[in-house]
Amino acid sequence: METDLDQGDRELGDLFDPFDEDFERGPQDDVEDDVEDDDPLRDRSGSVEESNEGSELVLSWKWRGDRDATEMLRFDRATEILRIFPMIHRNMNYENPFSRLTELQIEAPRWNSRLHSNVSDRYGLLHVVGLPKGFSAIYQYGLGVSRDYRGLLDELEKHTGCNTVRFIRSGDESVDGAIFRLSLDRFATYKAVVDRNRRRGATAVRRVIDAESHNAVAELFRREAVEPKYGRNAVINAITEEVASGYVTTASDRDNLVQHVILAAPKVAHEAPQQFGRLRDDIELVSLEVLIEQFEKGLSGRAARSEDHWQKFFATNTFALQQVFSAPILVVAGQVHVRGTDALGQGSRIADFLCVNAVTRSAVVVEIKTPASRLIAAKGYRGSGSAEVYPTHRDLSGAVSQLQAQIESVPRDLRMNPALGAVDQWHVRGAVITGRVSELNDEQRASFLRYREGLTAVTVLGYDEVGERLKYLHAMLKASPS
Question: Domain range spanning residue 285?
Fold first, then answer.
């Protein structure tokens, strides 16, 4: 048979719970538990006394052996409102944990005033049945909002002069005289966020302890010390940083730090050249690690098919473009018109990047496609088995043709743009970054390599080849000088 309380619980989902285990333990935890009593309103520590005042049911708690009882809760049968007088048990007395709030009210139309209390099977202590999750329900420890979630009520105290908070099921959240009306949904959402952050905090602490455990014996096993593990979650990372270092740097803090380093760099380079060299190497290594991480992340998902994403990536990380050539390359401009439009506004050719060899001053045009672009056709053209020959896919042949047309147009554009500086306009090379060579089978790869080697003044590189060059450079920089 389903009671009114059970039905109410289902209507509120998981908001109401017969017994909330989030309570505060007090100094009475060690009370003897050898009491056997069939009284449903008595446990090993004391008992609940019930009385009636008009339409209100009054519940008070009395410690075993005490003469006086402390009023804890009232339920108005007429308005169907639970009235809780917040208390915590401290130093053998009950105290109000708030500075101004004296009463917490809950709209509880289906609260069962006949089966209001019960002894927990787990703890053997009397608790109020049917309080929202996040409320302290154990009489012995005092009723109210559990310690972890009081911050919400502390904020209400800061911003209002109210002495009562009423948790409502629906309607406007507002000040009504001395009462602040707060939705149960808002409280439940806040509780969920607090619980999630507590779990994140536990994860961060565990990561720091795991690193410390490793480092404590690393020397014994000739292992290198490690840093705490950082993941993708910004909150967990911040907590991990706080636990490990005792402070958290914000984006503004880090920006200020970078500015200070830039200003102090010339002086540090003269005063402490060795430390400055190590700092420079460490920064370059970390920057390269971040670059590789971002590069690999873009090889899958939507970014793998977005030319715009990769054009922005290489524009932001021009260092990655330099890995295409075995020479120092300066990026002069991006999205350059290497052939102007005609009178009808047609015929423009736009290069993704115009670069210059820093030594020879020869021009280099770079065309950016996507990792998802095809290099070789799926179906062979002639032969079979290991002798099978594959034609280039239109994605590749089209990109190369486009680049060759841009290379042809560059000398004219350079003559018309003196702002680009002294550039050798007669020795123009080009490069296409497209597709992934590692996705080709042996025969397709052989056909691709023959096609690539036969090109004149054009370099074709797959995204995976660029990525491997970055990884190789990282490994070389990270390796010991020996």
Answer: 251-296
92 plus 177 within the same structural domain: yes
Instruction: Give residue 376's pLDDT band: very low, low, confident or very high (50, 70, 90).
Output: very high
Spatial neighbors of 104 by CB under 8 A, at least 6 apart, are 83, 84, 85, 86, 144, 145, 153, 164, 165, 167
Is residue 431 classed exposed, middle or buried when 0-12, 13-18 and 19+ CB atoms within 10 A define those classes? buried
**Residue 253: per-residue pLDDT:** 67
Task: Please indicate, yes or no, whether residues 134 and 186 belong to a single structural domain of this protein.
Answer: yes
CA of 214: how far to CAs of 12, 172, 207, 221, 435, in Å?
Answer: 47, 54, 11, 10, 42
Beta carbons within 10 angstroms of residue 25's beta carbon: 11
Q: What is the average pLDDT across 270-293?
A: 70
Q: How many domains does the chain have?
A: 3
Helix (H) or strand (E) run with residue 10 in it:
helix 4-11
Based on the domain organization, do 159 and 124 belong to the same domain?
yes
Q: What is the pLDDT of residues 166-189, one digit of tens each?
A: 999 999 999 999 999 999 999 999
- Over the stretch 14-23, which tens digit does the pLDDT of each residue have? 444 433 443 3
> In terms of domains, do 275 and 325 share one?
no
Same domain, 283 and 361: no
Distance in Å from the first CA to the final CA of the chain: 79
Question: Looking at the domain assignment, is residue 169 inside a domain?
Answer: yes
| Pair (396, 257) in one structural domain | no
- Nearest-angstrom CA–CA distance, 272 and 312: 37
Kindly state the DSSP code that residue 29 receives in the 8-state scheme.
G
- Say yes or no: 26 and 96 in one domain: yes
